[in-house]
UniProtKB/TrEMBL annotation:
<feature type="domain" description="Glycosyltransferase 2-like">
    <location>
        <begin position="5"/>
        <end position="174"/>
    </location>
</feature>
<keyword id="KW-1133">Transmembrane helix</keyword>
<keyword id="KW-0472">Membrane</keyword>
<feature type="transmembrane region" description="Helical">
    <location>
        <begin position="267"/>
        <end position="289"/>
    </location>
</feature>
<dbReference type="InterPro" id="IPR001173">
    <property type="entry name" value="Glyco_trans_2-like"/>
</dbReference>
<dbReference type="InterPro" id="IPR029044">
    <property type="entry name" value="Nucleotide-diphossugar_trans"/>
</dbReference>
<comment type="similarity">
    <text>Belongs to the glycosyltransferase 2 family.</text>
</comment>
<protein>
    <submittedName>
        <fullName>Glycosyltransferase family 2 protein</fullName>
    </submittedName>
</protein>
<dbReference type="Pfam" id="PF00535">
    <property type="entry name" value="Glycos_transf_2"/>
</dbReference>
<keyword id="KW-0812">Transmembrane</keyword>
Length: 299
């Protein structure tokens, strides 16, 4: 039977780590290996706390524990896990999130039946009370072709990392994650699409992401830089898109910038970007802003 490697990078959130690991150990599909990559830096207080937690699994042959000498970031930590993996399939889980019990089994079946190189599931995000804040339903068909994939990714972002399952060979052929400070998962999917990997969509919510008390959408200078880099990447594909699709992409971009500037009390920049968003797509702007408002108010 094929092995599935589940890679869990962890950094400063060891209090949730057991919940993540146990959700994988409780899967209906049991031919798994779990690779926990501790990215806290060897010998730091957080690393020692994590190591103490991981001692619970020291006798479990399905769980491997790797300690990075220094903090290398999410992209490279996941690549370390990829290099250490032995599975036919590779999937990922953040240290504070969980898989629903049938996640791996359903994905493996879909991968094998359809010959997919990459499959995507849907997910929901909950707060600490277990209330659903948001759902992520991938806006693609079950077996999308290149143009559908690319268009959906440019507009809607075919993420989150927890939803992915790759054939190990295919993931390694495209080089795994690139070392971006942010948006690594977005760029990985874009690489997969450009490499013409066969991608499939499993139309089921199989992952639960968690948003914790006090956690907010990133609003710092780093987020502004990422948005500007992303729109440059997306503009390279505008020649393939119609005017409505271009407007939706720009609307998302300006809406995110509005929110960042507003949270940082840079009201002139916030107003400017809100006007630009409304100009390109009034309905799209309303939808994005309502989504932000709902996430924050229900956290």
């Amino acid at each position: 039977m094929d092995i599935v490697s589940v890679i869990i990078p962890t950094y400063k959130r060891c209090e949730y780590l057991c919940r993540a690991i146990d959700s994988v150990l409780s899967q209906s599909f049991q031919n798994i290996e779990i690779i926990v990559v501790d990215d806290n830096g060897n010998g730091t207080n957080q690393q020692l706390k994590t190591e103490n937690i991981m001692s619970k699994y020291s006798s479990n042959e399905k769980v491997k524990y790797i300690i990075n000498k220094n903090n290398v970031g999410g992209a490279l930590a996941r690549n370390i896990g990829i290099s250490a993996s032995t599975g036919t399939f590779i999937t990922f889980l953040d240290d504070d999130d969980i898989y629903l019990p049938e996640k791996i089994g359903i994905q493996v079946e879909g991968m094998k039946t359809n010959g997919w190189d990459l499959s995507l599931t849907d997910n929901k995000t909950c707060n600490e009370k277990g209330e659903i804040i948001n759902t992520k339903i991938q806006n693609i068909s079950e077996n999308p072709e290149y143009k559908e994939l690319l268009t959906a990714h440019l507009i809607d972002h075919l993420t989150v990392t927890n939803n992915f399952m790759f054939r190990s060979k295919s993931l390694k052929n495209i080089g795994g994650f690139d070392n971006y400070s942010s948006a690594q998962e977005y760029m990985l999917v874009l690489k997969a699409i450009e490499a013409k990997l066969k991608v499939g969509h499993i139309k089921r919510i199989l992952v639960v992401n968690h948003m914790h008390e006090g956690e907010r959408i990133s609003t710092g200078p780093k987020k502004i830089k990422v948005q500007k880099e992303l729109i440059k990447v997306k503009r390279k594909y505008f020649y393939l898109l119609n005017s409505k699709q271009k407007r939706l992409i720009l609307c998302r971009h300006y809406s995110v910038l509005f929110f960042i500037f507003y949270k940082n009390k840079k009201y002139y920049n916030a107003l400017l970007n809100s006007i630009l968003a409304i100009i390109v797509s009034p309905i799209g702007t309303l939808n994005y802003l309502n989504n932000y408002k709902r996430k924050l108010s229900r956290n």
